[in-house]
Write a structure and sequence with these properties.
Low-confidence stretches: 86-91
Order of helices and strands: HHEEHHH
Helix content: 55-70%
Structural class: mainly alpha
Oligomer: single chain
Strand order of the largest sheet: 1-2
Largest sheet: 2 strands, antiparallel
Radius of gyration: 16 Å
Strand content: under 5%
Distance between the termini: 51 Å
CATH class: Mainly Alpha
Number of domains: 1
CATH architecture: Orthogonal Bundle
Mean pLDDT: 81
Number of strands: 2
Shape: globular
Number of helices: 5
Length: 91
């Protein structure tokens, strides 16, 4: 388990970025220490890395949120929209 600062360092983001993603319902923080500190798992680290990678590929935060909720349906609809945008730009 990681505290927010440790997770941020491993994922190369700031703790504020993690808090922002939590507010955007892209990450959870269900586990806390007795002192109230957030604790994160390896799954949380992988999720955060996925978000960062998707951002680097040009996905919007809204599209990433949709992918995290329903990866099959949302991913296809997002890619379909990107394909339409690109074909329109080529014409």
């Amino acid at each position: 388990m990681y505290r927010i600062g440790e997770l941020a360092k491993l994922a190369d983001v700031t703790p504020d970025t993690i808090r922002y993603y939590e507010k955007q319902q892209m990450m959870d923080h269900d586990i806390r220490t007795e002192g109230g500190f957030r604790l994160y798992s390896d799954n949380d680290l992988q999720r955060l890395r996925f978000i960062r990678y998707a951002r680097q590929l040009g996905f919007t935060l809204e599209a990433i949120r949709e992918l995290l909720v329903d990866p099959h349906r949302s991913g296809a609809s997002y890619l379909s929209g990107v394909e339409g945008d690109r074909s329109g730009a080529i014409k």
